[in-house]
Amino acid sequence: MVYSELATQVLQVVGQFQLEPTAKVILVHVVSSGTSDFDAVADRPHAQGDEIAYREVEKLLQSYQEKLPCQSDLEIVSGEPAPEIWRLAHIYKADVIAIGCRGLTGLKPILEGSMSAEVVAEAPCSVLVVRAR
User: How far apart are CA 97 and CA 93, in angstroms?
Assistant: First the structure.
């Protein structure tokens, strides 16, 4: 599932940095392993049924891409979110990762883990965590 409201908030915060036209932003969506048959096709040509879900994610990312004042690429991959984000940060030699945080409280972060905290712990660069409003 794409958390479009949280993604919008992350992009709003990134937009406050007044990105130079020469900057490059990589918009990433990671389909968690085991969430659906979609994860099996995110990194390869798409089967008919799964292509619809892939195209919806792609269209949403493209709508965000159109609002950026600089160059950008899209990456839709499958796997565990934190390791995939680290992998892409290494590939693109990222200066910063901007990520949303759903703000889980109580036992949920302990039981489910916090993906944003996991990204921060092992990221190869600085991480900007935007908390959901």
Answer: 10
Q: Where are the alpha helices (DSSP H) in 45-107?
A: 48-66, 81-91
pTM over 0.90: no
- pLDDT in single tens digits along all 133 residues of the chain: 345 788 889 999 998 988 888 999 999 999 887 654 444 444 454 455 567 788 888 999 999 999 888 999 999 999 999 999 999 999 999 999 999 987 766 655 555 568 888 999 999 999 999 988 8
Instruction: Please tell me whether residue 13 adopts helix, strand or coil conformation.
Output: helix
Q: How far is CA 24 from CA 37, 55, 112, in A?
A: 31, 23, 32
